[in-house]
Amino acid sequence: MRVYLDNAATTPLDKEVFEVMAPFMLEHYGNPSSIHAHGRQVRAAIESARKTVAGLINASPSEIFFTSGGTEADNLAIICTIRSLGLKHAITSPLEHHAVLHSLEALEKTGEIELTLLKVDANGVLDLQHLEETLASQPRTFVSVMHANNEIGNLNDIQAIGEICKKYNAIFHSDTVQTMGHYRHDVQALGLNFLVGSAHKFHGPKGVGFIYVDSAVKIHPLIQGGSQERNMRGGTENVYGIIGLAKALEIAYRDMDEHQRHIQSLKDRMIVKLREQIEDVQFNGLSAEGDKSLYTVLNVSLPVSEMNEMLLFNLDINKISASGGSACTSGVDLGSHVLRAINSDMERGNVRFSFSKYNTVEEIDYAVDTLAKLYQKVIV
């Protein structure tokens, strides 16, 4: 048995999704920009997918643009908005995905913006008073805060953040890659200007994502070269990827309540069993704090041990796939910027387990039992 507990990195493709993609790989091969029957058939399928995605998040189809994934979508929102609107200041948190942080840092380096990083506490909770104080002094700015952290699972109150941004006429972008397909998003209720998703995080294909762009915000394209995506993104569309994305999101919304109950029960079970079997086990951020964290992610902090340097390797040898998060793995790999930002003890072993609808109780038990044996601290 090989156990896959790295679903925050990517999820297995749903067979139901593959079934709707296959005809667009083999039979419906027209270029959607062509005006003949082959092209029109494919164009209609793309627009149907766009309508599906828009309906699920309460947007207009004209506000949905398909991209190569979350990274491109984040770059489009950040770079194009700042340059198109002439914004000179941006606010984000030190816990953001590198798709956001590196994009903003690059703009800061060239002198295009001043960048403010929000204060966070030892649990990774954002200081929203700091956000409001900063916006009060510089109201017309670009704000980027993720819905949930991909490493420690912390959920941010993006509705409250959106209300603060609206108060100060700020532009609000949220990286929702980790929560898309796991929570319901209503862009009208949330009051944000940009929201992004990536299909492979919710059992869709890799290499395709989307961005919601508020129709009230007019920006220039990131990729030039064609009139695709209503002149917002040049390049022939990833047709079967787009078809798969829409189907995967449709399934995710259809079965969300059932899958959430199942996955939360697995996470809760792992927390209990880890506490029972491993002495001094801890959890980074709010990942063990119920509805304060993403139910698909658990970031575990293990006792100081020689085992820590080879933790992921040993898990892999024992047929368990997971992700790390330690900043002391080597002199070259600086490790997790998220754990450094919340001042986690980097002498401890840090590992992220992330779950999906396909995981089982037996897999959770095997993973915990394996960890307990590795650390030789099984409590009888």
Topology:
Layout: E1 3-4, H1 15-26, H2 37-57, E2 64-67, H3 70-85, E3 89-92, H4 98-109, E4 114-117, H5 128-137, E5 142-144, H6 158-167, E6 171-175, H7 187-190, E7 194-198, E8 209-213, H8 228-231, H9 239-254, H10 256-277, E9 282-283, E10 297-302, H11 311-317, E11 320-321, E12 323-324, H12 337-341, E13 349-354, H13 361-375
Descriptive report:
This protein has 380 residues and is α/β, with parallel strands linked by helices. Helices cover 41% and strands 13% of the residues. It is built from 13 helices and 13 strands. The strands form three sheets. A seven-stranded mixed beta sheet has the order 2-8-7-6-5-3-4, with helices on both faces. Strands 9-10-13-12 form a four-stranded antiparallel beta sheet, covered by helices on one side. α1 runs antiparallel to α9 (239-254), α2 (37-57) runs parallel beside α9 (239-254) and α10 runs parallel beside α13. The radius of gyration is 21 Å and the shape is globular. It starts with a strand and ends in a 5-residue tail after the last helix. Residues 326-333 have low confidence and may be disordered.
Task: Please provide a brief summary of the model.
Helix content is 41%, strand content 13%. The protein has helices at residues 15-26, 37-57, 70-85, 98-109, 128-137, 158-167, 187-190, 228-231, 239-254, 256-277, 311-317, 337-341, 361-375, and strands spanning 3-4, 64-67, 89-92, 114-117, 142-144, 171-175, 194-198, 209-213, 282-283, 297-302, 320-321, 323-324, 349-354.
